Request: fold
Amino acid sequence: MELILLGVGAPPPTPQKSGPCNAIVKGEKLYLVDAARHAATQIMKSGFHVSKVDHLFFTHFHSDHYTGFGEFFISRWIMGASTPLKVYGPSPVEEIVERMLRYYEYDIDLRAEEGKPRAGTDIEVSVLEPGNALEVDGLAVRVEKGTHHGNVDDILSYAFEAEGRKIVIASDGSPTEALVPLALGADVLVMHPCLPELIDERFGSFKATAKIVAAHHATAEEVGRTAAAAGVGKLVFSHVVPPLAPDDKVREALAPYFDGEIVAGEDLMRL
Ligand SMILES: [Zn+2]
Reply:
């Protein structure tokens, strides 16, 4: 089992980084975690085929984590998927799926009228809650509310375990008490630190906005201490606030709190 960082960017589109999403790879299969901008393209770049991806786990529904959902879904069908897509996530995952399907209804009807089988446009939704555990094709999945993320109550952290490895994706926000137990002994922990001093610099006079953004995210100290307390093998940072914060500054900010391996996430990196 491996992790692919499909995109390590942030809400603003940039040429350097794709939108924030990840994938777990086990055997021949790719399991998508969030569906950010360019998710479908990033899947193809990673060497997998979009039509063969049958599982999508959402952490939460800030738009930067699902702007690529519709494109991924419709590309998967057009490129040949003929089985339902399985989508997992916190509330309101059912509403998000329903609204997305409505957006593509017109196109699906056009193609179906020309004879393309509708199979592959079905979506099976599973609403997940903190404390849930499930198994998908031998991949053990545990979910907890591992972060506080502003006013987003419905947010999940995921622990994936298979083949003797454990990969944990915390998602956005400051750690809750549930994160260290979830991440305990993980080989890889992915977190998203925020460096408020750099936000101030970039946002210039918009200090109020910077404050709100910083309050929604984990400090470097919180991220480093979580990794240390959980005793993880590798701490990976991605989807950093502010966007395009220099890697060396982020590493410098984390290092005093975690003396294990710190990895600056890059698009399409495999771990
Ligand atoms: Zn978010």
Summary: The mean pLDDT is 94. The chain has one domain: 2-270.
